[in-house]
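Re: the pair you flagged

First of the two:
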Amino acid sequence: MQSRDNEGVELGELSFRPLKRIRPPSFSPLTAWRALKSFVEYRDLLVTLSLHRIDVRYKQSALGWAWAVLQPLLLMVVYTVIFSLFTRMPNEGVPYALFVFSALLPWTYFATIVTTSATSLVNHSQLITKVYFPREILPVTYVIAALVDFAIASVVMAAMMAYYHIRPTASILYVIPIMLVLTTFGTALALILSSLQVRVRDIGLAMPLVMQLWMFATPVVYPLSMVPARFRAFYILNPLAGTVEGFRRVVIQSQAPDLESLEKAALISFILLPIAYMFFKNREASMADII
């Protein structure tokens, strides 16, 4: 005779299924560590959903993957016309088109992460309410999809460098830690914003405006050297300042990144990510009820 639990469900029928208890919210490092182990166990689902995200991203669009290139490319054209023809912006010895595109590349990567992942949970409400899986998988898939877009747009960057006869040097190896810091910061914001969007739907609506303002507070169309010295300490608290400027310097200027701004960006990013993850897991228990 098979035993039954309090709800009358035959335990023998459930013995082959993993048991998951969704407990009340808990803001605890230990809970976050257990959740991280669960996230690793669901890595196959992460890969599957990421591939699906990449596959359907531009599936029904006429231009397809060209959209990954068009956004930074068209912005480069607009900024080049404005800041090299109508008004002169310092370009630190490189063609302004290449100067601005090399900053738009990491900026667009970050902006894509933030704007698309903010609504990742709300857009998959039916999935969240019907089956359990670590919810952080959804915003992380948008990070992976944005990284694929970045890789595609990097081909255009390489073509522009060849056109302007700029050869990469050993300094380009700094791209690896720079992109690691940028991805860490973007992932942290993706976790925070997507969990907030479940309760406050204004988040997704506000993000395009926030990103426009944020871009002009980041050295994209101008170099970091233009920031007055008296504001520099406050300015580089923006993690995008160190990563975007650093990316440009190591790729097209063959220089080491500004270590002060990059170190602060790394410090902020690596502290924020575990806090963001614990915040996300704290909100996870009530997501299915609210969404």
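Second of the two:
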Amino acid sequence: MSAATLAEVLGRLPSPTHPDLLVGTDTGDDAMVWRRTDGPALVATTDFFTPIVDDARTWGRIAATNAASDVYAMGGTPRFALNLVAWPSELDLDLLTEVLQGGAEAASRGGWIVGGGHTIDVAEPLYGQAVIGDIDPDRILTNAGAHPGDVLILTQPIGTGLVATAVKRSEPADIAPGGRFHELYEAAVASMVTLNDVASRAALDADASSCTDVTGFGLLGHLHKLALASGVRAVVDPAEVPTFAGAWDLITEGFVPGGTGRNLEFVSDHLDAGGHDDAFVTMLADPQTSGGLLFTCTPERAEAALTALGDAGLRAEDIGEIISVGDGRAGDLLLR
């Protein structure tokens, strides 16, 4: 579902309120947070999707990693999860076993327990998890706290939507070792199964003022939501945004997912492309799966955060800054 459609539907519903609901739906944050009187607060989220790679176990790993990402984006730690499975009856159950094993592997790496779940019989397979974690109520990261003067830190490269589209439209030999997309595919998969635990700790250590993960709405879509919730504008330097080697060629070859157009439509009224060509804008709107975190912090804290992220093997970059509304509007995005 596009960000615009989702916003329209949610706008028809009353916003949930409760004294113990610390983070709800008001600003479109990544997960809900619930206060407990006897310890850390609870943070809860869910996500699931259709296969984006041909290997069942890899799909399971990516889906579970992606599901937990929203907990990390809030500054929390995943503790347990329930599997969400939609499975066609004619598909081999050995494949489903592989999917669930992949999800269990991701959970094991992240330290959360998969304690059950639910399955239904459908025409198209879906897999994901509902993930529950805990969080310090005094250190919750939301998308609503960015300040003018903060810098924007992106912790992983973008381009997974382009890669996934190329995989779907190509022959298996193109992805196999020696194939033209093999190295690009391997890099994208390695990124999509990377937990955002290190990135979350870096954001907390940097006293991040806001944070979100970059997933289906693309970098521009999620940044727009962050800037809008924070009452600020954002400036992005496209040349500083990390991408996968070879991903730009996929734009030229036409491997652009349909979600890109919907993402651009969502931000079009708030985007000043600054003379950049369509390829740059397309890349920044590419819908991501299990992407990195995007957080804001002061320039003084950014250098240490980037060093810590780099030492952990992440391709993090300072990609821009937060500016005041000035003569613009909250949520405006300017490409430098």
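The first strand starts at residue 21 and ends at 23.

-B.
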